[in-house]
Model the fold of this input.
Amino acid sequence: MYTYWDKSAETIPEEELKRRQLAGFQAAVDQALKTPFYRERLRKAGITSGADVGSLTSVQDIPFTSKDDLRDAYPYGMLAVPLEEVVRLHASSGTTGTPTVIYQSAEDIGVWPDLAARSIAATGAAKKDVFQNMMTYGLFTGGLGLHYGAERLGCLVIPAGSGNTKRQFKLMKDFRTTMVHATPSYLLHLHSKMNEEGVRIEDLSLKKAFVGAEPHSENIRKKIENLLRVDVYNSYGLSEMNGPGVAFECECKDGMHVWEDAFLLEVIDPDTLKAVPDGEEGELVFTTLRRKATPLLRYRTRDLSRIYPGPCSCGRTHRRIERIKGRTDDMLIINGVNVFPSQIEEVIMKMPEIGNNYQILVEKAGALDRITVKTEVGPAIFSDDARDMNHLRERIKDNLKASISISPAVELHEPGVLPVYEGKAKRVFDVRAGE
Ligand code: DLL
Done:
C-alpha cells in the first residue's frame, strides 16, 4: 500500500547499500582529488587515491569540510570537472558576503530530480497531483529542486514562486492544486490571509504540503495540518548537498529518510568531533556519493538531529533522522541556560490561543540577559481586556519556565502585526553583542 518511486533503490538491503556507499565514497575521494582544495587537504591526511579509503569507517580519517572552506575556495577551488562540463550552479549568500557555490554537471543534475521525485512519491504523491511550488526560485535551491522532482514524477507543476498571496490563492483555486511546497512560516502566513482574500478551505483541493528550509516544531506541523486540512511532510536539505531531497518524511511521518545511496551520513559530537552512537543527538555530517562537479567530503552542516533506531514500517531501508532541533550556532545561552529557539516554539505553539507568528528578542539588561517572546494571538482570542491578556501572558511564562527553565518577558500582539518573510523566517533577534 506504500508508494515508491524507485522501490529497489529505496528498499535496498543494508549490505548492498553499504557496498554502493563504499564505491560512491571511493569515487568521491577520487573526484575530490581533482580539486585544488582537496588535493592539498587530502595529501596532508596521507590520501592520494580513492583506493586509500578501504572501508566506510575510514571516512573518519578524512578532515571535515566547513562552510568557510567553501567560501575560501570561491569561486572555483572546489570544482572537480572542467568548467564546460558544468550545466548549473546554485549559490547561497549567507551573512558574511562571500557566497558558497555548488556546481552541477549534466550527470549530477539528473540525480537530484530523481532524489526529489523519490522524496515526494514517498508521501503518496502521484502523477495526477497538481504541485504548486511556493518556494523562491533562483540561486536558492528550494525552487528548482522539487520543481524538477515533481515534473519527473509526472505531476502538473505550477512554478508560482514565493509571495503574492492573492495570486497563490487564485492559482490554487483555478488549477485545483493538491500539493504545495513552502516554508512553514509562509504557509501560516498564507492561512492568515484566507479571510481577507475571501477564500475558504472548501474552495481548495489541497491534500499535502511539503515544508522545509527552516526549523519548525512538531506543533507547527500540527497547526498547519489543522488550519489548512492537509498532510504536512517535513523536507530537509541544504544547498551544499544540492538542496531539498536530502531527507524527507514518508507516509508514516515518523522521521525523515536520508537518501543514503547519495549521501553518506555521520552524526558527530560537535565538541569532540567523534561519532556519537546511533540514536544520540549530534551534528549531521554528509559526504556526497554521487556528485561529480562539486564533491564534498564530511561537510559539517551545524544541524542537530539524531538517527532513529530500527526500520520504518514503509519498508524503506534508508535510515531516518529526527526533525532538526536547531543549528549549533542557533543555541542561545540566556543567563547560563542553554536554549534552542525550537524549544520555545514547541512550548508556545502547543497553546491553542497562540497565533501564527512569533519572534524572540534577546538583549542585555545590565549584566543579565533579557529574553522577550513576542507572539501573535489567534484572532478570536485577542482582546482589549487587560485581565485576559495578563492571564494568557502568565500562562505562557509558566509553561516556558516549567519546560525549559527560562523566564522571558512576553508580549502579545494582534494577528498580522509581526513581520512576515517570503523565504526563510527570521525569528530570533539577538542584539546582545551590539549593546
Ligand atoms: O534551505 C534547502 C531546502 C529548500 C530544504 C527547501 C528544504 C526545502 P539552505 O538555504 O542552504 O538550503 O539552508 C540549509 O536550512 O542546514 C538547516 O539549518 C535548514 N533547514 C533546511 N531544511 C530544514 C528542515 C535549503 N526541514 C539549512 N528543518 C539547513 C529544519 C531545515 N531546518
